[in-house]
Amino acid sequence: MKQALEQALEQALVKLLRDHPDAPVPPVVLMRPKEKGHGDYAANVAMPLARLLKQSPQQIAGAILDVVVWPDAVEAADIAGPGFINIRLKKASEANVLKTIIEQGEAYGRVVAGEQATKVNIEFVSANPTGPMHVGHGRGAVVGDALASLLLATGNHVQREYYINDAGAQIGVLANSVWLRIQELNGEQVEFPEGAYPGEYIVQIAGEVLAAHDYQTLLAMDDDARLSLIGQLAIDANMVMIRNDLDAIGIHFDHFFSEQSLHASGRVDALIKRLQTEGVVYRGTLPPPKGKETTDYQPVEHLLFRTTDFGDDVDRPLAKQDGTPTYFAADIAYHYDKHLRGFDRMIDIWGADHGGYVTRVQAAMKALIQREAQPDVLLVQMVNLTRDGLPVKMSKRAGTFVTLREVVDEVGRDAVRFNFMTRRVESQLDFDLESAKKQNDENPVYYVQYAHARIAAILRKAESEGVVVGDVDDVDLSELTTHEEQRLISHLLAYPDALIKAADRLEAYRVATYVMRLAADFHSFYHKHRVVTEDANLSMARMVLIRAVAQVIANALGILGVSAPDRM
RNA sequence: GCGUCUGUAGCUCAACCGGAUAGAGCAACGGCCUUCUAAGCCGUAGGUUGCAGGUUCGAUUCCUGCCAGGCGCACCA
């Protein structure tokens, strides 16, 4: 509907601007006014034209209305305020959306991806396989998963991907930490060095390793072989744990991608060679870092990627002092690999602590594949975990940090997911364990779910009294005349547009704010009007209305990965 | 110091890629359960949108400069 109106206005503008061939036709963007008196849609096109045409916005709006050809559903259009065109739709045509919703069910608001649809790869979580996920990972996980669902619902092919950082120095630390615990389990006196992973899960992994491999055999191995074996077992064990925890919050990936496999298959080396042939690599020395204690700075010659040619501040090393590739080198190869796998679009969801990394990856991709398939990077800001308003003390070193799993087990999956979705990713998020557990107004998830459960209760009640809607087409929706009913209808009508807008901007949290408002409108309706009444026609119409509301609540919550219960 | 994100009611956040009178929840105060779920609803009060300029018919939104906070700043990932 929105698009039909925009088209009508655009055609009117084209006619109107014939006398001004050099004047650009301004884009028509319709709004849904918050004020009901301002109609169902409003257009502001007349105002930007005022200066150009040297007429008042009101005059221009009048001229537009003289030539415009509206779709049938338009009841009236008039000029208001400083030059807005307010459009009012015929009531019946708006209410028809209820039938559409009930007919389409879960499909309402969704666009099915066709052959030509964009292939999107969305990479998120990617927590290192060195330990359990913390709450910050959880936010990224929930945001990424919801965004993936949203893009899927708006007509894209979507692959959810997890990049396993199973290479590099950290894996050595992990292997060593486990080995120390193995020795300890065998009665050795061991010293834990600074930087070793302290968590209890390391002891568990040590136990698992011992169950599969004899201690004497391990001792007899040479150091490299032993650490490599233990490292792989530890990575596997941690990934099992991570997958379990993701499962507990309802997140499933289509693809796990191993960094190690990039190195092993020679793709990292090949990538570096390719960059060399393109002449963007040189040997050089970097200046000392700014703003940090630089006492240990030693000028070192590196293999450097000239990212400054592509918008970066300094050139970035592709190889470490010992000649092995940096994480950055592997990451370029990884993103390039996504491109080769045929994705039209890639989205990375990273923690805010990786903010400084965005430019160099984008610079690298610019060098490799020019304009196409540049990664969109969403930086998810920190989560401040509190309990009753007091910060929860966390120390990774002491191993006392709160894991995502603990939080999910304590407050529940729906509450965690919904709370993480109620803010823009750019905002830091305060997450209070006690508030999230409370089943009251402090907790928006129950507010929305409650609306759904309430509707289910009403429908049960109606059924028990023998009030049942047979064929939706037989119901007279013109019974729905009250302010509250009209609000609900227009809100339901806006759902597909809300999804599209959220998807365009990669802002899945909008789905959460949408559904909170829909629930508010429903609660408001509920208290003012009864569904099951003496008047059979009215009851039927209202049942159709609330069934549609429940459907859209369920659809929206589905995108967020939150359940829509029938009873609470 | 540089980069980046944030700054809106006492608190936590919205505000539809620049639109009409800046809105919700919590906290405060006052109402509403013999009728479909009170995990709810209605009302009152609460604002110099961090500060100062600029662009615009119009700025919470865009630009510049300050102030405050988070994150990051070679050879880790």
Describe the structure.
By secondary structure, the protein is of the alpha/beta class. It folds into three domains: 2-89, Gyrase A, domain 2, CATH 3.30.1360.70; 124-264 and 381-437, HUPs (Rossmann fold); 442-560, Orthogonal Bundle (Isoleucyl-tRNA Synthetase, Domain 1), CATH 1.10.730. 49% of the residues lie in helices and 12% in strands. It has helices at residues 2-16, 46-53, 57-67, 91-104, 135-153, 169-185, 200-212, 215-220, 223-248, 259-264, 267-277, 327-340, 358-369, 404-411, 413-420, 433-437, 444-464, 483-493, 495-504, 509-528, 536-560, and strands spanning 30-31, 41-43, 74-80, 84-89, 119-123, 157-164, 255-258, 281-285, 301-305, 316-317, 345-351, 375-380, 383-387, 390-391, 429-432. The protein has a five-stranded parallel beta sheet, with helices on both faces. The chain has a four-stranded antiparallel beta sheet with strand order 1-2-4-3. Strand 13 (383-387) and strand 14 form a beta hairpin. Helix 6 packs across helix 7, helix 6 packs across helix 9 (223-248) and helix 12 packs across helix 13 (358-369). It is globular and about 85 Å long. It starts with a helix and ends in an 8-residue tail after the last helix. The model has no long low-confidence stretch (mean pLDDT 89). It binds one RNA strand of 77 nucleotides through helix 2, strand 10, helix 12, helix 17 and helix 19.
